[in-house]
Each structure stands twice: as C-alpha cells, then as structure tokens.
Specification:
Two copies of one chain form a homodimer. Chain A has helices at about 15-25, 55-60, 85-95, 105-110, 125-130, 155-170, 170-180; strands at about 5-10, 30-35, 45, 50, 55, 65-70, 100, 120, 135, 140-145, 150. Chain A has about 190 residues and is an alpha/beta fold. Chain A has one domain: Rossmann fold, CATH 3.40.50.880. Chain A has a seven-stranded mixed β-sheet. In chain A, strands 3-4 form a two-stranded antiparallel sheet. Chain A is globular and about 45 Å long. The model of chain A has no long low-confidence stretch (mean pLDDT about 95). At the A-B interface, α1 and β4 of A face α1 and β4 of B.
Amino acid sequence: MSKPALIIVFPNAEDSELIIVVDILRRAEIDVTTASLNDEEYITLSKKTIIKPDAKLSDVESKDFGAIIVPGGHGVNDILKNAKLGGLLKKYESEGKIVAAICGAPYIFTFHDVGKGGAITSFPEKRDDIKAAGYEYSEEDVAVSKNVVTSRGPGTAFAFALKLVELLKDKETADKVDRAVVHIQG
Amino acid sequence: MSKPALIIVFPNAEDSELIIVVDILRRAEIDVTTASLNDEEYITLSKKTIIKPDAKLSDVESKDFGAIIVPGGHGVNDILKNAKLGGLLKKYESEGKIVAAICGAPYIFTFHDVGKGGAITSFPEKRDDIKAAGYEYSEEDVAVSKNVVTSRGPGTAFAFALKLVELLKDKETADKVDRAVVHIQG
C-alpha cells in the first residue's frame, strides 16, 4: 500500500496538468484527494473547465498524506505567497514526504524556501526568477532533488505523474501504467 | 476565424483525453463547447473527477459547429448504440464536418457506419472488433481519413488535439501551441 496523495486545486490551475496527474495516480491505484486551497466547492480551471474537487483543504489537511502536489496554470500567480500553502509545503518537506509541483507552481517554492539549494525545474519562463532565488535550475523534464519533485508543463505532465507513481509506489507499477496509457502498445 | 467545436461528455469518459483536447483547442483560441450527451448537469469521469460541462447537448446540438469530438474511457461501452449520438455523427460526416474520436470512442463509429471503408485507429484492444466491422485499421497515433479523425489513447491525446487545431484552424497555430505546451522550449 502506498500512502495517499494530496493535490491542491485553485482557480485557474492548469487543466491538463491537474487532470493528467489525478488520472495517472488513480490508474496506479494510489488514493488521491483533490482539495480546494481556499475551500471553494467548485473551481474554474485555466481553460474554463469547471470541476468539483473531492474536498476542501481545511477538511483534509490534517490527514496523513504521503505527498503534496501542486499543478501550474496562471492561477499560480495568485497564490505565490499563500501562507497556508507555504506552511503545508514546508511541513511536508521537513517530514521527508514528497513535495511536488509542475509548470509555474515550482515558483511558489521560492517564496517559502521549499527545496532551497536543490535543483528544481519549471515552465521555462520562470527560470531566471527561480535561479535568482538561489536554486539550482534543471532543464530535465522531471527533476528529483531529495523529496522535491518538479516538472515543466503540460507536455511533461505524464512523465511527472509517472515519476510520482514510482516514488509513491514502485517502478514496476509506473512502467505498467506507462505502457498501458502513455506509450500505447499494439 | 475557425468554426466552433463540440465535445461530447458522458459518465466515465476518460479524464485526460477530454481535458487535454479542451485545453489544447482553447489555447488555439477555438471556441469549444463541452456538452453532456444525456443532459446531465454534472458528470463523473472515468477516474472520478467531477466536471460541469458547458451545456446540455439538447440545448446546443442545433448550433453550427465545425467538428464533433468524442473522448474515450470505459463509459464508451454504455453509449455504443446511442441513437442521438449516432445520428449526430452521421450528420456531421455527411456535411463534411470533422468527426473525431479517441481511444475506445472510434468503436462507436462501427455501430453507425461512420467513416465506413476508411482507415481509423483506436485503443489497441478494439482493433479486431473495428476490423471485423469492415474498416481499415491504422496503427498511427492519429489517423485522418477524409473528415474522420481518430486516435489511440491518453498518450496520443496531445497529438490528436493538435491535429484538430491544424484542421480547424491552421498548421501554424498548431505548431505554436505544440511548441508552447507539448514540446516545451528552453
């Protein structure tokens, strides 16, 4: 059994990144909870899809998740300094749990010193800001630095999700989901 | 200006395929309407994400869309013989509009003789059924046969969506979205 995963949802989160990660983790039979950061019941994503998250963050944040995952999207700009999110990210990092973000979301880390000194990647336009904040910048599709996992954007979301499956469960499960879904076999 | 696109949503549609197509088409500034086939207000997708489609199909089906697009997912099995959907698919095909499906959804075509005689692809497990129904089976990630566009699964959903952008708008726009989102550039 792998520990459950918490995925943070907020207005204008990037549709594909969020849904690909939820989809792949659930295919790997990892228990996933999507939780609205500010307790919204419905959330309009970046490309206008309206979803109903599984829970409000305040109702589930004390649960023992093994990972916290933040999707990107232009809504990231509205939550960069969110103290509740920053506190949770720091807590997970200090407890050795997985702290993961993709696209614009790794930039949030710089406002809370999450993964400081390690190598992180992000959507390329955030590169200079992240480097200026004292991080090593990786150009890999998925960067793993201790318990901090980051990735670049919608096109790397499958690889990001599969890496999370590998870390939360095992490589065999990740490979199985990869073959079935991403690299479809004849 | 490209014509708007209609995307059919139904219970247990495949989360990633639906959302990737919506996301990419909207990035290309194509007017997209997600419409619930049986007029449900909220729909639970295959991997348990709950979405609120933009419209009920009965409210928008008479609008002049340039394409009808059907995602896959195990809910496909419940709508194979849906007369409303079958009728719409045939109507779009006969009018020379784009008729598109991915994963398990191309199998729906065989129940309504959509794209009959042409080459279509699908999630591999549907191959034999599709061939037995009198279709040429393609192993391409995206197959285009006259105005019928088909694809294989979550891992080919970006390529499928980008082909739809190319056909509904132009290659230049598809390449621009591809570079920005899928093949992320430094």
